[in-house]
Every structure is written in structure tokens, then in C-alpha cells.
Amino acid sequence: MGAGAVRVRILGGAGPDGGQWLIVTTHPDFSSPRIAILGGGPGGYEAAMVAASAGAKVTIIERAGLGGSAVLTDVVPSKTLIATADLMTRVGEAGELGVKFDLDGGDCTPTMRADLKHINDRLLRLARQQSADIQKGLENQDVRIMLGSGRMLDNHTIEVLTADGAEIIEADAILLAVGAHPRELPTARPDGVRILNWAQIYNMDELPEDLIVVGSGVTGAEFASAYNGLGSKVTLISSRDRVLPGSDTDAAEVLEGVFERRGVKVLSRARAETVERTADGVIVTLGDGSQVTGSHCLVAVGSIPNTAGIGLEEAGVALTESGHIKVDGVSRTTAPNIYAAGDCTGVLALASVAAMQGRIAIAHFLGDSVTPLKLHQVASNIFTSPEIANVGVSEAEIESGKYQADVVKLSLRSNARAKMRNHRDGFIKIFARKGSGTVIGGVVVGPNASELIFAISLAVTQKLHVDDVASTFTVYPSLSGSISEAARRLHVHM
């Protein structure tokens, strides 16, 4: 028997001494536990780093490349695309700041053009570089990397199919970080040329002249904003009353106003029934029978967890009705020794959450100090132009009566730095618990909202009082100064 295993006698069996003996693993070898990780996305590789640093023998199994879809086909490529679109938007607005473009001493009207092949080549190259950097970091930690697909045989064993054949991996603990893939509509199957999902859109060499985006969630809104910035004519089809239905209402209204000003056509309460390819474009038929024509169509209608065909049933891992893996606050599944992290859990489809889930899982298994995942402390950002960031309690939860809080909303139009940079859209919103003044949430809409939200996120996590935020020095002029000013307006005079 190996370390950490005992023999258990089953009475009444047919063994030589009147019973059967069963080998049961009680606990891994404390000195060097074996951990197998299925999936190399943020949940997987972050967990592998932590586990290896703690002295565990780690094997990570990934079929596409280290970093998973977050690095190769989702977060890194899309945000790189968005960065280019933002730059083009700023250059297009440069004239309002007094920047002139001359030709032989005379004024001219410059023509900007997005070289989509160059953009896509660059972002895919960056994605590959990031993947290589992750792999190098894992190798430096002596993590064994297996390129192939894995299937669990039980809660301690994974069968891995590689280019060299099959191999059995035994582990004291297994972490499932298998991610998700784009959801497809039966009547709108992507062909990778005219009808695309968010993983295929980087295959285009020419900027789409007339892009139709089906889906007004985070992915749809981000791509609509990005391609509008790159110069495409964009139509956004939303089945809901507004874009970003799950986000802050004020933030969504700001974005809709920006979309209208920049020429993005939003079709609200319109459901796409079919998407058909034509000789030179696409036709989208809506629920009321009307049709929308364009050159390309991006279908962004959510994702499906990669939980089919990997032996979850054999291992005793329970799924939700949506096919996501059931987990608790420390990333445990219903099967002993098996944890899960990332998009396959359906908790929050964020790379930061996946990474935290992975780190929590390893800490729990190794008996290290661990704090269960607290969703109200998760900061998130929507990379539209302007960006939309939030953390903690939402205003919808306050309005419903779930939380009692004072709310202050401060427009960036009053911010000196925003005026200097010609930023007209956005606001700072802070929620403070009524009576105590503790910061419990906030929203930032504007340039670099993903960076500005950190101050409010820190206040939420550390349960700071609004006076703590208000009394902290900020630079003048700065956008962060509006956070301090909003906090001052929440001060309660005793």
C-alpha cells in the first residue's frame, strides 16, 4: 500500500479470512501531495503556481495551450482589440483639444483606417506570448505540463490522451478548471467567415463594413463598442429593454447615450430568430418578421461549460441544470478530493474569480488558512468605451430593500482632469451603509474605470468608513479625486 492508504475489511465477503479487503485513501502524503489540474486557464494555472510553491507535485492537463480561452481566444485578444479601438477614438477626438493635422503647411482632414489583419495578427501574437510566459513560469516551478485531453475515471484518477498515446494520472486531489465555450443558436450556426462567435472573430482580415451583433450582454456590448471605434457600422440586437441588462442602470444609460452619439444602432426588445448567410453578407430575421442586413454577424449569446464527456458522473461530481459544476465557497464539488474553478462553475465568468477559486481550492486542500469566496467583494469591469466598473452591493439591491444605504452619484463632467482630457461621459457612485457610513459598494463609469474601481474595492473589502476615504489624499487634478469628493458628500455630521 502507498502512503496515506489503509486496508478496510468488509465482513461477510468471500475473502480467505471471511471477508474482503478494500484499499481506501485516507489522506495524501503531507510531505508531497499529488495534485492534478484539468484545464490551464486562470483557475488552473494560478492554482498550479500556488500548489507548486507549497511543495506539491503538480500535473496540469491542457488541450489548447496554457492560459486557456481567457488568454488565447477571449480576455487577452478582446482587450487588445479594444485598446486599439480606444486609441482610434481618442485620435478622432484630438481636434477638440486643438490638435491639427497638416499637409505641406495646410490643414487637412486625416483619414484613419484600421488595418484589421495587422491588429488581429498582433493580438494573437500577444496571446501566444502570454501563453508562453505562463508555461515558462509553470515549468520554473517544476509543474508537469501535459498537452492533451483528460477524462476522470474516478475521484483520484485521470486518463490523459496525448499525441503520444494514453497515460493514467493518479492524484490525491483533482482541480477541474475546464472553462466554457461559446453558446450557439440552432438557427444561427457560425461558419467562421460571415457568421462568427467570439472565438472566431479574430480570423477576419478585413474590417467588417456592417457588423450585426446579436446579444447585448457584456461580450456583445464590448465588441459593439470596439468595432464602432475601429470604424465599422454596428447594429446591436438586444432582446431586453436596454443594453447590459444585468449592470447598473445609470451606467447602461450612459453607454446607450454614447452608442447613439457614435452611430451604433441599438434594436431593443428584438429577438434574433435566424441568421442566414447570403452571397455577400448576412440576413438576421427578428421575432416580428423584420430583417436586418449586414456584412457580418457576431453571435454573442452566452457560453456553455465544458463539462460533457470528462467523466464527472463516474467521479461523483454533481452538476446544475445548466451543466455547471456545483461548488461551495471553498471550491469543493460533491465528490471527495475534487475541486472546481472558473467558468465551468457558473459562479462569475471572470478571470479574476477563476484565479481566486483555484487559489482557494489549493489552500483548502493543503490545510492552509482559507477564506471562502465572497462575491460581494468581487470587482468587475466592462471594457466598453467608456469603461464600466463595479464592486460590492448594487443599487438595484438597495432599491429592493435588501440593503439600506445612502447613495451619492458624482458626474465626471465636474472633474477638472476629465475636462482637461475632454472626457464627457461617466460618473462615480458610492454606496454607504445607512447609519454606520461603511462603504459597501460603488460604480465607476469613465476612462480607466478598471483602475479607478480599486480604491472603492479596497474600501469595501476592508470595511472602510466614508470618512476614511474622504480623508485620504488624492492628487489634484485627478479622476480619483472624484472618489474622495463623493465620499465627503456621504459624511454624516454627528
Would you write up a description of this structure?
The protein has about 500 residues and is of the alpha/beta class. The chain has 4 domains: about 1-30, no CATH class; about 30-180 and about 300-370, FAD/NAD(P)-binding domain; about 195-300, FAD/NAD(P)-binding domain (3-Layer(bba) Sandwich); about 385-490, Enolase-like, domain 1 (2-Layer Sandwich), CATH 3.30.390.30. The chain is built from 13 helices and 26 strands. The strands form 7 sheets. It has a 7-stranded mixed beta sheet.
Question: Residue-averaged pLDDT, rounded?
Answer: 92
Going by CATH, the architecture of the largest domain would be: 3-Layer(bba) Sandwich
Radius of gyration: 26 Å
Q: What would you call the structural class?
A: alpha/beta
Question: What's the helical proportion of residues?
Answer: 25-40%
Q: Which fold name is given in CATH as the topology of the largest domain?
A: FAD/NAD(P)-binding domain
Name the beta content range. 25-35%
CATH class of the largest domain: Alpha Beta
Question: Which word captures the global form?
Answer: globular
User: At the fourth CATH level, what is the homologous superfamily of the largest domain?
Assistant: FAD/NAD(P)-binding domain
Q: How far apart are the termini? A: 69 Å
The strands making up the biggest β-sheet line up spatially as 9-8-7-4-3-10-21
Give the total of beta strands. 26
Biggest β-sheet strands, sense, barrel: 7 strands, mixed
Low-confidence stretches: 11-16
